[in-house]
Design brief:
Elements (H helix, E strand, L loop, with lengths): L3 H7 L4 H20 L4 H10 L3 E5 L5 H4 L8 E6 L2 H8 L7 E4 L13 E7 L9 H13 L1 E12 L8 H13 L9 H11 E9 L2 E9 L4
Parallel strand pairs: 1-2, 1-4, 2-3, 4-5
Antiparallel strand pairs: 5-7, 6-7
Helix pairs in contact: 2-7, 6-8
This protein binds S-adenosylmethionine (SAM).
The site of S-adenosylmethionine has 23 residues, from helix 1, helix 4 and strand 2.
Length: 220
Amino acid sequence: MTTPSTRAGAAPYSKLFLSVYDLWVIRLSNDYGWRCNRRHFVDLYREHLGRRHLEVGPGSGWILANVDLPTDIDLTLVDLNTNSLEHTASRLGVTPTLIEHDVLLPLNDNVDQFDSVSINYVLHCLPGNWSTKSVALTNLANALTPEGVLFGSTVIGVDQKYTALGSALMFAYNRIGAFANRSDDLPGLRRLLSDRFEQVEVTMVGNVALFVARRPLHAK
Ligand SMILES: C[S@@+](CC[C@H](N)C(=O)[O-])C[C@H]1O[C@@H](n2cnc3c(N)ncnc32)[C@H](O)[C@@H]1O
């Protein structure tokens, strides 16, 4: 069952917020808050998108709209907030399958496995600590084919030097529950991924951990 603290992580994405998301989050917060320019996300997606792809937490859909999606892509979007699903679908040149769903709960058994899954800037929105958030990674590992790849990014909350804007965002977002990443450390993220995937790469850019995890261990 989805809890109120999980809902708080998806609550800010009103139609109004989504209309300014690209400017506020993708451009300003990334560059001046987290020191991770948007091109890093575009590169990550361009490199790892598979033909049958699941995007978890698309937000405004800026990344998908800027990666030149193959016309034959079989794309599914999962989000707890229908505004994010509809806003993203409206700006893509392909027609995705939309699923309103909490990533902390297993995907329905009748959904076929994916070649790739992305979860970008969602882990820092999920409530609790790595132990709670690990459930999402287990669910996504189970949604992948044996050769599948999971990729994404998250703002790290432990042992970080933030800019003034980054510190203000960390304080404000954690206070309202939009973020819950005060105990999200980098070794913990590496461990969670390595427990679930054969091959894991994690790279820090500014305060953001960019990760790629291949071959889910369930498939062995
Ligand atoms: C910060 S936005 C990230 C948007 C986009 N991926 C990006 O990188 O710009 C977080 C997204 O995750 C969704 N979300 C938050 N908690 C969720 C949950 N438990 N299950 C599914 N989606 C969730 C929010 O509704 C929102 O669309």
